[in-house]
Fold these 4 entries.
Entry 1:
Amino acid sequence: MAEQDLHRQHISGQFNQELETATAHMLEMGGVVEKQVLAAVAALLELDSGDAQAVIESDRAINAMELDIDDECFRILARRQPAASDLRLVLAIGKVIIDLERIGDESSRIARQAIALSEQAEDDLARPWTQKIATIVAEMLRGALDAFARRDAQAALALARGDEEIDANMAGAMTALADTMRSDPEAVEACITTMWVLRSLERIGDHARNIAEYVIYMVEGVDVRHAELEAVLDLLPER
Amino acid sequence: MAEQDLHRQHISGQFNQELETATAHMLEMGGVVEKQVLAAVAALLELDSGDAQAVIESDRAINAMELDIDDECFRILARRQPAASDLRLVLAIGKVIIDLERIGDESSRIARQAIALSEQAEDDLARPWTQKIATIVAEMLRGALDAFARRDAQAALALARGDEEIDANMAGAMTALADTMRSDPEAVEACITTMWVLRSLERIGDHARNIAEYVIYMVEGVDVRHAELEAVLDLLPER
C-alpha cells in the first residue's frame, strides 16, 4: 500500500473513531437523562423532597454534557468536514442533545412540583395516570435512544407513531382532576401541581418522539418531521 | 488579478450569498411565527374560533419552512464546508428554526384553547395577565430576531436575562385562577384552559430566550446556555 493511502486510511480511522465517540457521549447523556426522569417521578410519587432536590441539582451536569457534546460536534464539522451520512449523523447528534437537555429541564420541573406537593401535604391526585404516563414516556425515551444506537429506523418509526396511549391517559387524568377541583376546593392547589407534572411528562414524550424522528432522518435521509407517517412508511424499505 | 484568484473570489461571493439567503429565510420564518403568536392570542382574547382555526391551519406552512431551511443548511455544510464564524452561523440558523417551529406549535396550542374557551362560553379569566405576558413574549421574540439580524450580542444578552416580568405575571395569574376555581366550581374548566394558554406563552418566552442565546453564541463564539449570565457579561467587549 502506498504511503499516501496508509495516511488516508489512518485519517479515516481517526474520523470514524471521533464519530463513534460523539455518538457514545450522546447515548451516555441519554442514559443520565433517562435516570433523571425516573428519579423525578419516583420523588413525586413518594413525596420525597430530598430526592427531588437531588434531581434539580444534577440538572447542571446534564447541561454541561450538552455543551461538551455540542462542542465536540462543532469540532468534527470544522476539522473533518463530513458529507452525506456522516454529516447527517453529526447533525442528528447535535439535535438529539437539545431534546435530551430539555427532557432534563422537564425532570427538574417535575421535581419542583414534587417538592410543592410534599408541602401541600397532599398525595398525587392522579397517581395511577401519572404512573402510567411516566412508564410510557420512559419507555419511549429508552426506545428512541436504543433505535439511535442500533440505527433502527423501523423501531424509531413505530415510536414516532405511538402517542394515542399518552393522549388517552392524559384525558383520563384531566377529567379526574377537574372533577376533584369542582367537588373539593381545598384540593385545587394540589390538583394544579399535578396538572403541571402531567404536562411535563407529556412534553418528555414529545421530545422522545423528536429523537425518534432524528433517527429516521439519520438512517434514511428522510425527514419525517411533520410528515404524514403513513406516507413515510411506504418510503422505508422492508427490513 | 490572476484567473485563479478571480475564481476563488467568485466562489467566496456565492458562498456569502448562500449564507445571507439562509439567514433571510430564517428571519422570514421568524416573522411568520411572530404573526402566529399574535394571531393566536388575539383569537383567544376575542374568543374567535374562526381566527383560531386559521392559526392552526397555517402551522403546516411553518413546518414546511423549517424543513426547507434545515435542508438549505445541510447543503451549505455539505458543499461549502464552512469553518469558524461561518460554521457557527449555519449551526445557529439550524437551531433557531427548531425553536421557531416549536413556537409555532405553542401558537397552535393556544389557538386550540381559544376554541375550547369559546365553547366553554367563558371569557379568558386571566385576561389582563394573558395580555401582559403575550406582549412581553412577543417583544422578546421580536427582539431576539432583531438581535440575530443585527448580530447584536449585547441586545441578545439583555433579552436572555429578562424573564422576571414573565414570572411575576405568571404568579399573579395563577393565584387569581386558583382563587376563582376554589370559589366557583363552574369556572374550573375555563380556568384550566386559561392555565394551558399561560403555560404556552411562558414556553414561547423560553424559546425566544433560546434564540437570544444562539445569537450570542454565533457572534461571540461564547456559549451562554446554562452559564451564569453575569459571568458572560464580563466576557463581552463593551460596544
Entry 2:
Amino acid sequence: MAQKPSTPKGMRDFLPHEVARRSYLIQTIKNQFEKFGFLPIETPAMERREVLFGKYGDEGDRLVFKVLNSGEKVKKADLDAFSEGQLSRFSNSISEKALRYDLTVPLARFVAQHQNDIQFPFKRYQVQSVWRADRPQHGRFQEFTQCDADVIGSDSRLVELEFVQLFDAVFTDLGLKGCTLRVNHRKILSLLAHQSGAEDRVASFLIILDKLDKIGWDGVIKSLKEEGFTTTLVEKLRASESTSMAPSQKIDVLADLIDPDGTSVAAFDEMRFLFSNFSLASLKVDFDWTLARGLDYYTGTIFEMAPPEQVKIGTIAAGGRYDDLTSAFGLSDMSGIGVSFGLDRLYLVLEELQLFPKHLAAPIDLMVVQFDQEIITQLMPLLHRLRSSGVKIIVYPNPTRLKKQFHYADKLGIPNVLVVGSEEFEKGQGVLKNMLTGNQKTISLEALDASFFQ
Amino acid sequence: MAQKPSTPKGMRDFLPHEVARRSYLIQTIKNQFEKFGFLPIETPAMERREVLFGKYGDEGDRLVFKVLNSGEKVKKADLDAFSEGQLSRFSNSISEKALRYDLTVPLARFVAQHQNDIQFPFKRYQVQSVWRADRPQHGRFQEFTQCDADVIGSDSRLVELEFVQLFDAVFTDLGLKGCTLRVNHRKILSLLAHQSGAEDRVASFLIILDKLDKIGWDGVIKSLKEEGFTTTLVEKLRASESTSMAPSQKIDVLADLIDPDGTSVAAFDEMRFLFSNFSLASLKVDFDWTLARGLDYYTGTIFEMAPPEQVKIGTIAAGGRYDDLTSAFGLSDMSGIGVSFGLDRLYLVLEELQLFPKHLAAPIDLMVVQFDQEIITQLMPLLHRLRSSGVKIIVYPNPTRLKKQFHYADKLGIPNVLVVGSEEFEKGQGVLKNMLTGNQKTISLEALDASFFQ
C-alpha cells in the first residue's frame, strides 16, 4: 500500500529555488559575522536532556523535543509516573537526549566543555537548525534555522554597540530598510518589577508584561492587579510615553520615575552609552521599557527586531546579554551576549517585499541533448574539459524526443543547449543554441570553452 | 549544582578550525555536484515514522532514532505492549516522528510529494546530517553528514557512468589518490542467490555475503551451509578469482558460471558498458561480485568506495540504483540511482594523509587593540569603511593589558594588529603591526584600506 507522502506538520522541504534563496541569506549573514570577527562552530542536533532543561523557563521546556531511548533502554519506563499522570517524569524516564531548542544553551555547554581549547573573549557564529514543538502558524515552524553570533567572556558595552552595527550591516546588505530594533535592559525591568511589589516574583511580572502585544494595556494592567502587583508605576510610565521622545529622553524619564535614588545607575548608563554612539544606514533603533523577551537566561541588554510595518510577521532577529549561563556548566564569571537572526522569517520578509536578487547564479550553464548513447560517451573528454574549467553541465540521460529535451532545458532555465548529431560529430562540430535569444550557431567542439558560457 | 558539560555519546562539537575544514570538503563536493548538473534540495530532520520504517532492513530500522510525542500525546502509551515485552510496539505508540537515517528515503518521499513541481529526470544534491543509534567507534558516529547526489526518473546506464566520473572528479579536486571503487549489480547477486537455492530468501543470502570482510571466506561458507544454501557455485567463483584479471574478464567468467543460459544478460551488459567507457584520473574501479551493500532498497548497480589502503577506516562513499523506492509513496516507474559521500570519514582520511590545504582563508584579517573605549567609538566610521570593503576585523572588547591583547591575536592567528593610542589618534595615525614578520609601521588612518590586508 502506497503511503501519502508528506512532511511532519510544521516542517518543510526546500525546492532548489528555495535553497538558492536560503543560501543567499545565509551567505550574506555569515559574511557580516566574519567581518565582525566571529568564528564558526557547530554543535550536535541532540544534547543530553539535562543540558537543555531548566534554562528556557517552563514554556520553553514544554516545547523541547525529546528523543526516545533506543532498543532495550525503553525498559526503564516509569509506569508509576504514567499512572499518576506525571507525564513529564514518565517521558524523562525513557528519554536521555533532546533536540536543541536554540543555539545559546548549546554554546554555553560548548564553551564550558572546550574552555581550554578556545580563546576568551570567544566570538563565535553558528548557523544551524533548531526544533520547537510549537503550534505551527504563519512564520512559525517546528524546524527552523537560526544564525547566531555571540561573545563570551567580555562585559564591555562596546560589544552591545557592535551588535547594533552588525544588525545594520546585515540589513543594509539585504536591501531591507525600515526594520526597528527595540532595546531594553533586564536590570531596568527587574527594578520596575521590584518597585511594583514583585520581590521574588520578577519572572511572573515579566511574563505578563511580555503579553502586551497580545492583550493590550488594559489586559496587562488587569493581569498585574490580579496577580497582586501594584500598577501605579506602570501606569505612570505609560502616561509619560510619547512617540516623539528620543530614546535618550525616554531613558532619563524612566530613570527619574523608577530609580530616583540612582541605585541602578549602571544599567541606565549602559543604555545611554549605546544610544549615543551608533550611526546607522538601514535601521531604526528605539528604547522600549516594555520589551521583556521570553527566555529566562537574559540578565542585561535585550534586543528585538521587528520587520517593516507593512509585513505582518513576528520578530526576525533578537538577542541579549546573559551574565551567568556558563556557570550552569561549571564555568563562572563569563558574561555572554548574543544575537540570533531567524532565517525562515527573514526569508518571508524578503519574499513579501520582493527583495531577493533576480538572478542568484545560473544553477546549470549547459544541457547536452542526447540522440545516441555512443555519441555522448565520445563527448566525455569534452565534457570533462569544460567542467574542469567551471562549466555546469547536465547531459540529458535518455535519447528521448528532441522536443521533450528542449522543454526540460526550458523548464529548468538552462541558458544553453548543445546538440551533436552523428553527422555533426563526424565533422567535430555541434550546434549551440541560446535558449534566451533563440539564436543558434554551428561551432567547433574543439574550440568550445568556458568563455561561451559567461 | 554545575553539570558536567558533555555532548551525547557518538555526537561531536566542531571547533572553528574543524568547521573551516568541513566547509572546504563540502564546498569541493558541492562544486562537482553542480558541475554535473545536480540542483540542491533540503528536507526536514524529522520524517513521519512510517516514511522511514521498512525501507532499510531490520538492522537499519533498529538504528532509527524515534522522537517522543510531546506533552499529552504520550498518554497513548501502549502499556500492554510494554508488559508483553513488545518494546518496538510500545515505542511506536508514543512516537509519531523519527530522525532521518539517510537522505535517500526522504528523497523518495520528496519526489512523490512534489512530483508536479519538479522536472524529470530529477537530478538533486543534498548535504545534511543523518542520525543512527549505532555503536560509536573510530569513523562511526551517531550524527554525521552525508553529501548525496541522485538521479530520479532515468534508467539510462549513462547515469552510472557519470557517477563514476563524478567520484573521480571529487577525489581529484581533493588530491586524494588511491581510493578504490568496487562495483557490483544486485541482479547478478540475486541470480547467484537463486542458483544457490535461496529462492525467496535472497536477503538472508546477501546478509551472509555482506559479512565477508568480518568473518572471511571460511565463515561465509559455513554460515551459508548452516542456513541451508548450496555453496558449490560460491566456491567455484572464489576459485576462479584472480587479482590479475581485468574487470571485463571477471564479468565474463561470472556470466559463464552463474548465467550460462543468458537469462540475466542485461545486468551483465550494464556492467560491461560501465567498465569499457570511463577514463579516470584518481580512482581505481573494480568489479567485485562479493559486494552486497546492506540497504534493502537497492535493485541494480551498487557502488562502494574504500579509502587508500594505508588508512584504516570503512567505506567513504557508496551508492546504487533503486528501481522502485518512490512507489512506496505512490509514484511508480521511477528508477533512481544515487551516491553518498560520507563527510566525516572523508575528513578523517584527509587529516590522516595531511591533504587539507594549509591555509583555508584567514578567518580574521585585523585586530584593533583597545586602550580606551572612547577612541574605539571614534574609530567606528573607519572600521565600517574597512568592513564594507571586505576586511574582517575584531575589536578587542576590553581595555586590558597590551600583552594579553597581543597574545590573543597571536593565538587566533590574526595577521595584523592596529594600535591607536590617544596621541596617535590626535594626529589621525595608528601603528599597524604585521604579526607574522613582526614589522610595524605608523600609518595614516585615512589612507588605511583593504589593500593593506591582501
Entry 3:
Amino acid sequence: MRVGNLKVKMQLLCGDEIAFGPGKADLLEAIDREGSISGAGRALGMSYRRAWLLVDAMRRCWSEPLVDTLAGGGKERGARVTEHGRAVLRAYRALEGEVAELAIGSVLIEGVRDTPLPLT
Amino acid sequence: MRVGNLKVKMQLLCGDEIAFGPGKADLLEAIDREGSISGAGRALGMSYRRAWLLVDAMRRCWSEPLVDTLAGGGKERGARVTEHGRAVLRAYRALEGEVAELAIGSVLIEGVRDTPLPLT
C-alpha cells in the first residue's frame, strides 16, 4: 500500500509461508469479482499456477478456509471467497487504512526530495 | 518490524530510491553507537561498501543531512547522526510502534496456524 511517498507492506506469517499479504488480498478481491481462480489470475495478469499456489498457501496457513473451490472432472469449476475470507480481507484493508492515516499525520513524510540527487 | 505473526515493512520513497526504511534505521542507530560508517557496518555484519551506499542514498534523498561525515586524507575519520537524522529516526520508530499497537488490536492476527499444513 502506498500513501504519498510512504510504502507499507503488511504480511501475516505462518512459519515460513505468507498466510496473507498484499498479493493475496488482491487475489481474494479478484476471485470475489471473477468467480474462479483462473479468472482472478487472468484479471491480475498472473499465471493460473501462481494464483493457485497463493490459494493453496492460504488453505495450508489458515485453520478455516478463506476460499472454497468447486473442483470437477480435473477442471476447476469455480471458486468463492468464504465469510471468513471476507472478514480477513476487511480486517486487512481496515488495518491498511489505519496505518495510512497514522503515516499521513507523521512528520516522517516531510523533508524527502521528490527525486534523489544524482550519484556522484 | 515484527509483531507476533505480523511483519510490517515501511519504506519512505524518493523517486526510485529508498529514502528511509528498516535497514537505514538500523544503520543510523549503529552509526550513533559506533561513531563511524565502517564501525556501524561491522556491527551490523554489513560491508563498508553497502553501509556507505545506504548513507549516500540518504544524502541524495533528503533535503537536509541525516548523517555528517568527517572525511580526511582519503580515509573516513568518523560520522555522526545529525539532529535532523535523530528526528527522522524517532518519527520512524514511533510510527512503527503505533502500527504495532494497531496490529495487536486487530482480529487479523487470529486464525492463522503456527505452521502451514504440508504441501499436497
Entry 4:
Amino acid sequence: MYRSHTCGELRMEHAGQEVSLSGWMFRNRDFGGMTFIDIRDRYGLTQLVFNMDDDADLCAAARKLGREYVIQIVGSVRERSNKNPNIPTGDIEIEVKSLTILNESKIPPFTIEDETDGGDDLRMTYRYLDLRRSPVQKNIIFRSKLAIETRKYLDAQDFIEVETPFLIKSTPEGARDFVVPSRMNEGQFYALPQSPQTFKQLLMVSGFDKYFQIVKCFRDEDLRADRQPEFTQIDCEMSYVHQEDILNTFEGLTKHLFKTTLDIDLPDFPRMTYDDALRLYGSDKPDTRFGMQFVELNPLVENSGFVVFDKSELVVGVCAPGAASWTRKQLDALTKWVQRPQIGAKGLVYVKCNEDGTFKSTVDKFFDQEALQNWANAFDAKPGDLILILAGETDKTRKQLNEVRLHVGNELGLRKKGEFKPLWVLDFPLLEWDEDSNRFHAMHHPFTSPKKEDIPRMLNGDHETMKSLRADAYDLVINGVEIGGGSIRIHDRDLQSRNFDLLGFTKEEAEDQFGFLMGAFEYGAPPHGGIAFGFDRLCSVLNGIESIRDFIAFPKNNQGRDMMIDAPAYIDDGQLKELSLEVTAKKEA
Amino acid sequence: MYRSHTCGELRMEHAGQEVSLSGWMFRNRDFGGMTFIDIRDRYGLTQLVFNMDDDADLCAAARKLGREYVIQIVGSVRERSNKNPNIPTGDIEIEVKSLTILNESKIPPFTIEDETDGGDDLRMTYRYLDLRRSPVQKNIIFRSKLAIETRKYLDAQDFIEVETPFLIKSTPEGARDFVVPSRMNEGQFYALPQSPQTFKQLLMVSGFDKYFQIVKCFRDEDLRADRQPEFTQIDCEMSYVHQEDILNTFEGLTKHLFKTTLDIDLPDFPRMTYDDALRLYGSDKPDTRFGMQFVELNPLVENSGFVVFDKSELVVGVCAPGAASWTRKQLDALTKWVQRPQIGAKGLVYVKCNEDGTFKSTVDKFFDQEALQNWANAFDAKPGDLILILAGETDKTRKQLNEVRLHVGNELGLRKKGEFKPLWVLDFPLLEWDEDSNRFHAMHHPFTSPKKEDIPRMLNGDHETMKSLRADAYDLVINGVEIGGGSIRIHDRDLQSRNFDLLGFTKEEAEDQFGFLMGAFEYGAPPHGGIAFGFDRLCSVLNGIESIRDFIAFPKNNQGRDMMIDAPAYIDDGQLKELSLEVTAKKEA
C-alpha cells in the first residue's frame, strides 16, 4: 500500500502517529516560512505542513507541486493550532518528513473544484477529470449505494437476481432496437434488449417466483434532452400475485431506499386512477407536491355569450395561491408562454381574486361579479389568489393546463426540493388508438393483462369497447416524474393471441416474434406480474436533480456519442467483410 | 396473493391452520379412496390429500390434473401418518377443501425431474421448462447468492460499483469485437466491451480508488465447447496498491465466497511463479489437488545410447502413485492416448516400480536397474508406483506431460470433487513472441506494467531482453481452472507508449485507439492495479461442474444461437436501410 490511511480518516486520536498518505495535490498555500498543502482523495482532504526551518529542500519541493500532482507523503499527525470545523480532518495536520511525486499532472483543462469553469463538451471530453470533482463523485457513489440497498431489500424478500441475455432478437414492436450483426450466422442479427420483458416472464414460467435484475437496456431513439441510448432498470417480476401484492412490495422497496439513502420516512403512498390523474392534473404523472388541482367550469360558463367558452369541449382552470398580485407584465408573459407552439394554447383567461372580495378578470364583459364569485367558490379560491383558465378540446386543453400548472408551481416555489410526494397511478387503459397508423397500440406493452372483469369484453367486444378496456397496469410517480411502471401480465395463450390480433399482428408475425412466449404459456404458466424502475431517473429524483447524466459515469451526448473515447467510429473493411456487410453511407472526412 | 404459504414452508407447527398454496402438479398418486398430489414450487414440495369419502367431485377433479398444471388449493394442515424424513415438509400434508386450476399444461417435451430424459437441443429449445427442473434452478439461485456475497464483501471493503458503458469503441487488438451500427452516426459503429478495462483504469484516474462491477462482457470468438459469446466478470480495480495488496484483498474475497456459499474455510493460498508452474506442472494453471509434479531427467539420461532421449531438449516425467499394477492393455491405451493428434507425443516411456524393488521399463535395453533406481529416487517413487516419461522440445513436451498428468490423475481418482486447491500464479512474462505474426503480443493485456525493476530494461533493451521481462501479473487458479487474473497497470504515458511500440502499434494507431487513456495518464494518474474473475466459471468451479452453461439462465449454443428465441435472425430491409447497411451474404431459405 502506498498509504497507511486515507485522506479523510485522521482525527485527534491519531496525533503523534507516523502515517503515510497518498492523493492529489488540491491546494498549495505558501506563507514564507511555512507551506500548507491540502492532499485529497475520494475520502476527504488532509492538511500537510512543510516548514522551511525544518527542511528547506523538502519545503521547496512542496512549493513546486502543481495542481493534481499525485503525491505520497510520510509524516506525523499533530493537532492544528488553527482548526477547521468544516472538514472531518480539520483538527489535525501532518508534519511531513518525506514527499514522493507518484505522477505529475499537466494543468487540467478546467478546475477540479465543486463549481468548475468547464463547459459541458469539455467536461465530457475529459470526463475522467470531471469525475474527479467531488459533487460528481458523490453522485456516482450515491448510485452505488442505491443499487446495494435495492439488492439488500429484494434479497431479504427472497427475490433472485437472474442475468438475462444481451444478445437477443429484434422485434419491430415498440422503440427501435440496436442490432448486432452475427459473424457466425451470416446476414443475421442479434438485438440488444430494450428490457428483459419476455425473459423475466419466462423465468416466472420456470418457477423462479420472484425475480429481479439491475440491468442495462438499450433504445435506439432520437435522443431528446436527457435520454440515453443505454440506461439502467431495476427490473422485477413475481408469480402468484395480484396487483395489490406488487404495489405493496415495491412501495416497501421505495420506502426502504428513501430511508437508507436520505433518512426520510415516507408515509403510505396515495393512489389515483389514470382517469382522475388526467381530470385533476392533466397528466398521468402529476407532481403532487402542490395542489392547484384542475376545476372544470363547463356547467358554470354555459351560454354566457363568450364564444371561446361556448364552443369549447372543456373549460378548465387552476387556482394559483397568492398570485393575484402578479403584474400585468407577468400575466402577459404567462399568456405569451402558453401561446408558444410548445404549449399551443390559443389564449389564457384569468381572474384576480382581489383582497377586497371583488374580482377582476379578462372576461368581465361576459361574466359579472356573481358569476366570478361562483367560479371562485368552485376553486375554493381565497382573496389574493389568481384563477387561470384554458378552454378547448379536452385532451389538448388538459395537457396545456398541466404545463401551466407546473410552470406556475415553479414560479410560486411550490415544487420544493427536498420534499417527496410519491403517487401510484392505476387503471391505465389497455390500448390506445393511434390515428396516424390507424391501429391500436399497447398503452404499456403487449403483454399487459386487461382487468379480469374486462376479459370477456376484450374477447368479444367491438372497436369502441376496446378503447374502454382497463389494464392492471400501474406507474409509480414521484414529484411528477415517472420512476417505475408495470402490470399484471397475460399468462394465457389465447388471451395473448387476441391481444396481438388487436395490436395488428398477423398470426405469422406474432408466432415469428413471440412464439416462444406463447408456447411457454401452454406448459403451466403461473399468474404473474411485475414492475421496472428507471434506475438513472430514480437516482436523479432522489437527489432533486433534473439530469440523469449526472448519475452516469460515462454518459453519451445528444448525438449518441461518447466524446471521451470518440465512439461510435468507423471500423475497418476487414471487419465489415467478416460480418458480410457493406456500408452504403459515405465516410465523412 | 394466490397463496398464504410457499410449498416449502409448512411444518408441524402449522397443523390445524387453514392455508392456501399455489404451484405445479408434480406427482399424482391414486389409491382408490384417496388421491395424493405433490404440489411444487421453487421452495419445495407439499403433499395434498383428496378423499373420495369427503368430497368425491373434488377428488375426481384432482385425479384429472395433468403434470405441470398450475393449481391453487385451500385446505388445512395436518400431521402425516406416513412421514417423509427426506423433505422439510415431510411431517405434514394438506387436507384439501378447494382446488382451482390456474393454468393447464400440455405434456412437457421432456420430464421435469432432477434426471430428465430430454436431450441438449430439446432442453435448450424449451429452456423455460429445463429451468423448472430443481438442479438447474439451484444452480441459478447459487449464482444469485454468489453475486450477493461478492457485493457484500466488496462493499464492506469500500469498493464502489460503477456501471461502465456497453456501447463503446472497437479495438482491433485482442479478440474480435461484436459491433453495433449507429443509426445517428452513419457508417459508424459502437463495439460491445470485451471487458471494462480502460474504463476502470479511468475511474482510478478519477479517484474512485476502489471500483468493482459484476458485468457482462462480449467476445465474438469461434465458440469452443463451453465458451459463450456473452459472459460475466467480477471486474475490480484499486488505486495506490502494490501486487501484494491486490492478492490479499481478493484472496479475502475468495475465502469469503467459499465460506458463505459452501461453508468451507480455505487456508491461505500458496503462490507459485509462472516459471515454476510450467517447470513442475507444464501449465500456468496447475491442478494442485494432487502431486505428480514433473521431474526433469536430463542429467540422469545423458549418453545412454537411447537416441530419443539423447536428441531431446527435455526428458521429463511424472510418477503415478500405485499405478504399477496397470495392465499392458491399460498402458498401451495410455500410449495411444498420448499419440493422438490432440496430444501429439511421439511415444511414452514408462517404468514400473515393482513391489519387490525391481524395475520393469520400456527402455530396459538402454538403462540398467541401477539407472532406473536413480530415476525412481529422483521421483521419490515407491514400490507399486508407475513412472511415465516424455521427451522432446521443452514447451511442447511440458504441454503433453500436463495432459498426461491430468488424464492419469483422473484415472486414479486424484482430482476429487469437493476438494478445493487455490493457487496464485505470479510473475508472468510481460510479452510473448508470436512466430506467426512476427511480433510481440501482450501476455495479459497492453496495459499491464512490467515489474518495477524491469522498467529500465524495457525502455532500453534489445529483442531478447523483451522476452525476459516479467510483469506484475497474476492469476488465481482453483483445481486447475483459471478463475481470475489481473495485473498492476502502467500509469505513465511514456511507458504505455513504449509498450504500444513493442506491440507493433504505430504512434497513430495507439493514439487513435487509446489516446484518451494516454491523455488521462498526463493528468495525475495514480498507481493502480486490478483483477477480473470469470463469474460463470467461478460458479461452476465452486460446484465441481465443468460446464458454465449450467449456471447461465439462457445460454447460447456452439453456433452462438439462442435456440429458444431463435436468435440471431434476419432483420427487415427498412431496418438495414436506416442503418446505412447492406448484407452481402445470401439469405438462407
